[in-house]
Write a structure and sequence with these properties.
Helix 2 crosses helix 3 and helix 5 runs antiparallel to helix 6. The longest helix has 14 residues. It is built from six helices and ten strands. The model has no long low-confidence stretch (mean pLDDT about 95). Helix content is about 35%, strand content about 15%. The strands form four sheets. A four-stranded mixed beta sheet has the order 5-6-10-9, sandwiched between helices. Strands 1-4 form a two-stranded parallel sheet.
Amino acid sequence: EVLLVAETRDTITTSGGMKVLPMASFAGCPPLNILIVPGGIGTRKEMLNEAVLQFVREQATKVELVASVCTGALILGNTGLLRGLRATTHWRALDLLRERFPEVTVDSTSNVVDEGKVMTSAGIAAGMDLGLKIVQRCYGEVIARAAARHMEYPFPKSNSRRVVHEESR
């Protein structure tokens, strides 16, 4: 079962104008196995939202895996979950991750960074690779490859970023 969880169950309008209806609030969230923190322009605000940070911290003590897509890593950074780990994010936020969290080893060459209980991915489309790595961890490579095939998405041949930006080096 996949749930969209937010601070409240109020409708959220994304930066692109799409309206999203959370299925559970932080207070009413059932037990989770995996927590995936999304990224996007809104993370700059939410990384300072103590309710978000507290929810992620609390869930991290209960779940099997905490993952972030793109700039969701900034939220994980502010919770302290990345301290002493390698992590990545969108190429435009790599310097911000380095500056704000000097105790994190920022990986600018990997598409997905797997540090055991915590995984981070590069920008936007790298979230697909992250999802496939999570499926592979939970259900094996055969199922992950079948999921990629079903989506008509290439199963990652390597963990290198698909596009390397000079600014990210």
